[in-house]
Design a protein that fits this description.
Blueprint: H1 3-43, H2 46-75, H3 84-138, H4 159-172, H5 174-187, H6 192-206, H7 212-228, E1 235-239, E2 245-249, H8 256-261, H9 265-269, H10 274-285, H11 293-300, H12 307-311, H13 320-347
Antiparallel strand pairs: 1-2
Helix pairs in contact: 1-2, 1-3, 2-3, 5-6, 6-7, 6-13, 7-13
Length: 361
Amino acid sequence: MNDAERAISLKLGEIAKQAANIQKSLDLGIVKQAQEAAKLTKSLNLDAITEATQRLRSTFVEPQVLKGIQDTMVVRPFLLPSFTTVISDWQRNSQAIAESVQSIGKVWQATVQSSLAPFQQVFARIAEERKKAELVEQTGWLPHYTTPFHLIDVQESDIAAANEAIAKHYAEAWDEVEDQFLENLDSYQIDNEAKATFREALSAHRHGLYRAVPRTLFPEIERVASNEIYGGKRTITEQTPRGKLKAFGITSLPCVSEAARGLPAGELLSYEFGMNLFTKMEEHLYARVGEDAAEISKFANDPVPNRHASLHGIISYSSRQTSLNALMMTDFMFHLISRMKSYIADESGGDGDGEVAAKEN
């Protein structure tokens, strides 16, 4: 063997060794990826899974495979027939590399599927709740954790029967319903004044003082929001398109919807039918009712009280249904403000005196 052949032989030996190292690295990479996948699946952090996969590819797969191909292309034109055995080994190693890369894809696919499984359960739950909520909302009642779904046949979609079952339950099982409200009320991070006011509203409802309920609760929501969200302010300052500063009252709770959207989705989903009630808050509860007769009629036909219409005497909400819907919306608003307060306290160093930053600069 002359010097040229010896040099080529050594080079091919290096290539074969390199291929074996590539395979070993890939095998280790697969194990590492599987270990990372198991940990990441528990935390359901898809961004982290993606980052780990990209890091694996960039570290193990792409540079090494590319380098191996480049080395092969440099050497192959000068190979002699006597080195076919070495080439066969290299081809086998190349096949192993391809299989390893494919196995990484399978690990990734399995990781994604296992990671999405809990989300699929959440989506299924949301879809089921949506069907229930749609039927209840057609009756004029709000879907709520106090709704007697065990008395309603969601599949039949009989609106009249559902309305009758709900109304009867709230009339005959008020002690049970009231206890459910009070149990949740105790868990909210709101002051004792708010809790006392809500208890008085429950008592008013029990005694048939339905007009008093929304007229009592709407101002209390505003007071709690002022203290917990707006730092005690009754007005906020916004910048107009022309760059001027203009003060606005907080009566319609500006910024609350925007700030609530910034909360983790679980904060809304943890409250039964929270997304439905949040939509009702945004689209109806604080909408401004004008003087147009058709518009007033539209709001009057909705059994969920509107803050502007109630407190300005535009519409009289005097039924058991409107009273109970007001209690439900207030209960939800207290939950929402309570959760927002927790995040504000965290961002302000835990003193609880932070303010909603949106639109306040």
